[in-house]
Specification:
The chain has helices at about 5, 95-100, 105-110, 115-125, 135-150, 160-165, 175-180, 195-210; strands spanning about 40, 50-55, 65-75, 80-85, 130, 155-160. By secondary structure, it is of the alpha/beta class. The chain has a single domain, classed as Ribonuclease H-like superfamily/Ribonuclease H (Nucleotidyltransferase, domain 5, 2-Layer Sandwich), CATH 3.30.420. Strands 1-6-5-2-3-4 form a six-stranded mixed sheet, sandwiched between helices. Helix 5 (about 135-150) links the parallel strand 5 (about 130) and strand 6. It is globular.
């Protein structure tokens, strides 16, 4: 693993490929699920939605596992309920991942397995649109895991990275850390799912108001 690459790894949203991290090359799985697609929303014309963020053992939805789920249910652009849990991935967390997201094997050893909480999680999502920073990444993990556990996911997804690029095309970067600094959004615990979801929620409200020309 290239040290320079690791040192510059700030957030999954900074990367364009989803297959950099394969902890054990002998266990790499090949699957036709690599081309998962979902209904992509491009305009912030809704005020009832779910903000979603996963932390994972790597960037491949096929070869890596969900470590943490952070989701926020929003009605009329106001937070109503949250879904926040660590997940036991059934494997050791790669050290370079653990160091970046501050989740250790000790922290997840007594956490539920994904199959034990997924039904409740899917019920929480309902059929609401999902607001996600780097939607392609999280939607692939969501749909792939749902399919493996015999659940259907019909939620559409809006990517706040793409929307921010459209509304603010002259920014230098579009990762969550940069946008939080630029828009003065507090993110108390970066790289943790519920904290990143809360930051994304604040970002979406800014994008919503900008799109609809609402004074902040």
């Amino acid at each position: 693993m290239n040290k320079e690459f690791l040192n510059h790894l700030i957030k999954k949203s900074d990367l364009t490929k989803t297959d950099y991290f394969v902890y054990n090359q002998s266990k790499v799985k090949k699957s036709n699920e690599d081309n998962i697609v979902f209904n992509s929303l491009t305009t912030p014309n809704f005020k009832d939605y779910i903000v979603l963020d996963f932390e994972t053992t790597g960037l491949s939805h096929i070869n890596n596992n969900i470590l943490e789920i952070g989701a926020i249910k929003v009605e009329n652009n106001e937070i109503k309920e949250t879904f926040d849990t660590l997940v036991n991935p059934k494997i050791n967390i790669p050290p370079f991942i653990s160091n970046k997201i501050n989740i250790t094997d000790e922290m997840v050893k007594d956490s539920p397995f994904i199959e034990d909480i997924f039904k409740g999680f899917i019920n929480f999502l309902d059929n609401l649109p999902l607001v996600i920073h780097n939607a392609n990444f999280d939607m692939k993990f969501l749909i792939y895991n749902a399919k493996n556990l015999n659940f259907n996911v019909n939620n559409s997804g809006l990517d706040t990275i793409q929307l921010t690029k459209e509304l603010f095309p002259n920014l230098k970067r579009y990762n969550l850390a940069f946008l939080c600094k630029h828009f003065n959004i507090e993110n108390k615990n970066p790289h943790r799912a519920i904290s990143d979801a809360l930051a994304t929620y604040e970002l979406y409200k800014i994008l919503y108001n900008t799109y609809h020309n609402i004074e902040i």
